[in-house]
Amino acid sequence: MDGFETDLSQYTTVAHAAALSSGTAALHLALIILGVEKGDIVLCQSFTFSASANPVVYLGATPVFIDSEKDTWNIDPVFLERAIKQYLSIGKKTKAIIPVHLYGMPAKLDAILQLAKEYEIPVIEDAAEALGPTYHVKPCGSFGDFGILSFHGNKIIITSGGGPLLSVKEEWILQARFLATQARGPAQHYQHSHIGYNYRMCNVLAGTGRGQMLVLNDRVQQRRVNYEFYYQSLKEIKRISFRPELLGSLSN
Question: Less packed terminus of the chain by CB within 10 Å, N or C?
């Protein structure tokens, strides 16, 4: 387990990682650590898998869905700021923003992070589908206050389940590991002073993940080869359009 977390930290350049049972679990714990509670507002991406929003509802908070922009199909910074201002006008400050790198295409992080800084809102970067892509030569998942990944069966690394929580703040990751192991205290007997969760990844799955880290860059490159094959084969058909990588999204 420790080795897999170290591999993920080194690859993503994020100092600390907690290997968990799923990306959904990582989102849930990130929201808890940020103090999201009943009645809070969390701004989410409208075009995404439901797991980006479900953990918000687990906590009794309200997910507010922001429409996409046309370049990446991800959260639109213009609509994002509009929503932030709208809720501020009625006395409700947004508790968190969850942008998603849909299909591995990085969202427009420059604008999103600028808004987050201006309005002092934490960002949980959903990079579940973006282990491998980079934004301005920096790995996806390394920009937000938290980053989350996924190793579900349809991802680039497969461990039959699992997904880490990433953060530069060690205390947050230590808190995540504590909550993810049923919040068991340091006593020799079973002592639980907080509500915890069975969210830790098992060592067998972590070992499977470590083996695939060795070929991750090869898999990323193969996806670019696949894209080029389809592009060259179908580009003359006017009814078909392609979604190229943005200039900020470069290979490692």
Answer: C
Q: Which residues on neighbouring strands pair with residue 146, listed in sequence order?
A: 124
Quick one: pLDDT at residue 246?
A: 66
Q: How do the domains of the chain map onto residue ranges?
A: 2-234
Query: Percent of the chain, pLDDT > 90?
Result: 88
What is the token pair recorded at 237?
């058909």
pLDDT of residue 249: 46
User: Is the CB of residue 102 less than 8 Å from the CB of residue 45?
Assistant: yes
End-to-end C-alpha distance for the chain, whole angstroms:
25
Among 88-102, 110-124, 192-206, which is the least confidently predicted range? Answer: 192-206
Residue 150 to residues 3, 25, 82, 240, Cα–Cα distance (Å): 17, 10, 30, 30
Tracing tokens 């969760």 back to the chain, one arrives at 197
Contact 41, 95 (CB under 8 A): yes
What fold does the segment set 2-234 form as a domain? Aspartate Aminotransferase; domain 2 (3.40.640)
Phi, psi of 54 (to 5 degrees): -55, -45
- List of long-range contacts for 32-36, beta carbons under 8 Å, 24+ apart: 32/59, 32/179, 33/146, 33/172, 33/175, 33/176, 34/95, 34/96, 34/122, 34/124, 34/145, 34/146, 35/95, 36/61, 36/95, 36/96
Name which of 61, 125, 126 is nearest 93 in CA terms.
61
Q: What is the pTM of this model?
A: 0.92
pLDDT in tens, 33-44: 999 999 999 999
